Amino acid sequence: MALQDELEQxxxxxxxxxxxxxxxxxxxxxxxxxxxxxxxxxxxxxxxGAASPEEKRQLGPLFNTVMExxxxxxxxAQARVSSAETDVPIDLTLPERPRPxxxxxxxxxxxxxxxxxxxxxxxxxxxxxxIEADEFNFGRLNIPPDHPARDSQDTFWLDLPGAAEKRxxxxxxxxxxSRTYQQVGLGKLTPPFRRVVVGKVFRYEAVDATHxxxxxxxxxxxxxxxxxxxxxxGTIRTMLTAVLRRDDVxxxxxxxxxPFVEPGFEVDVRLTSAEPGSRFAxxxxxxxxxxxxxxxxxxxxxxxxxxxxxxxGLGLERLAMIRHGIADIRVFNGADxxxxxxxxxxx
Length: 347
Ligand code: DAH
Known about the structure:
The protein has 347 residues and is of the alpha+beta class. It has helices spanning 3-20, 24-35, 40-47, 53-86, 106-120, 134-137, 175-185, 229-244, 294-299, 316-324, 330-334, 337-340; strands at 124-126, 131-133, 157-158, 167-169, 193-202, 214-224, 249-256, 261-271, 284-292, 308-315. The chain is elongated and about 125 Å long. 3,4-dihydroxyphenylalanine (DAH) binds next to strand 9 and strand 10.
């Protein structure tokens, strides 16, 4: 038989063998048998040496065509068996795996609510630095270095390289009052103004069910003409009724001392329809407040004969605890999702 005919027959047979192979091992066996180093095609190619020059001219292109066809068949066969092997049946009736959906942290919910209420009463929402100078956290708030009021605020002091004096993690958001009044002295702000801060504060405290070393305070302050304690009480009532979303909120004021207000008060709250004996059926101390001390206004360059104001500060956690009936403050920073996700978004 002529070499050409043999080549053509070999091509037909090899293509059929590739098409018939059903797994990777079978494809490989066909490859070795036909295209391998001691395969049939190689054997045929060795016969070319004895052909006449005329025959060789025809054999060359034919040989190339056959090789291309077989290599393409090999690639096709390999692709076919490998996709067959990974073709695991899909059960479309299986229910989807549950996807976890986040919820807004209970503190963030209450913070947003507080900011919304105060914005609606014309307050600007502001904040200041967490790492603070003594001057703003204490000095300008009428708390000089030797004042005993410092003892009640256990402080994290920071020795920052290159700083002339120690810094501290702010112990309360009242530091933002100092910074705001300073703006007036610098000519960057003029009264009247109303501001609210919702921000983190830090105290070197032992942690228990009602104390944490990192917590959140709400500080509100108003500087205007003819401001009285009545405005202060009305503002606090409005805030509590709105944030707690209850109509059984009762508040009482007790005289108290804070160096940056005069007179100063402590506000207690109770929920008149709370279950008797439960935590919020009794008076719970909620916030400190008062009329801004003339010296604090003066320290910022505000004339206390012309301007008065009130200020108050409270723990946002405590507000959230009342609103959600949470008994332990450690829930908020504890990152235990089983606790946090119970409060959902905007419950
Ligand atoms: N800064 C006080 C504290 O952290 C709370 C406070 C009391 C803020 C009275 C005030 C205020 O603005 O008038 O304990």
